Amino acid sequence: xxxxxxxxxxxxxxxxxxxxxxxxxxxxxxxxxxxxxxxxxxxxxxxxxxxxxxxxxxxxxxxxxxxxxxxxxxxxxxxxxxxxxxxxxxxxxxxxxxxxxxxxxxxxxxxxxxxxxxxxxxxxxxxxxxxxxxxxxxxxxxxxxxxxxxxxxxxxxxxxxxxxxxxxxxxxxxxxxxxxxxxxxxxxxxxxxxxxxxxxxxxxxxxxxxxxxxxxxxxxxxxxxxxxxxx
Length: 231
Known about the structure:
Layout: E1 2-3, H1 8-13, E2 33-34, H2 47-52, H3 71-88, H4 164-172, H5 175-189, H6 194-207, H7 209-219, H8 223-228
Antiparallel strand pairs: 1-2
Helix pairs in contact: 5-7, 6-7
């Protein structure tokens, strides 16, 4: 298992919007770092117990880990927990497939299907006079820097680089892979209107002329007409 890392300062000055899901971080700029080995050593013995009841949530992180302004991630932070509460109940963390394998501390208590001691007689509020349920301000996530108003934004305003990454990927492909790409594109666009095919050929050509030429030939479209068409 490997990850790529980018600091906040690098994100602010990078040539593309690093939180645009249609873009990738080149390994040359942000190399892969080893994390460990993710071992898949068996199939589920009971599909319902081990798959249907599983609940993966990006909000499940340790103190000190923050969240990027990736719009997809921010949406998932809101939606996953709500969906899992509806599907599995508020105490789905106690279901064996979701239960942590090591000791942990949580302020969560009560709710339907609570199956443990529910933190016993511990006080259920903070601050209190007994030092229970103390907050950890030193672990608080630093504030997220915003550019302008906290409002919806058009990611196209942040960079106009739509073609360099597709072109880089195309040039990494072997001739056989490129040929398969042309063939698959033609198979999936066969029933499209001519102007749609021409528009796609132009986009491919902007990424790499050989890419546009190969798609045009596979589609049976004139490359010259596609490049001249403005529709």
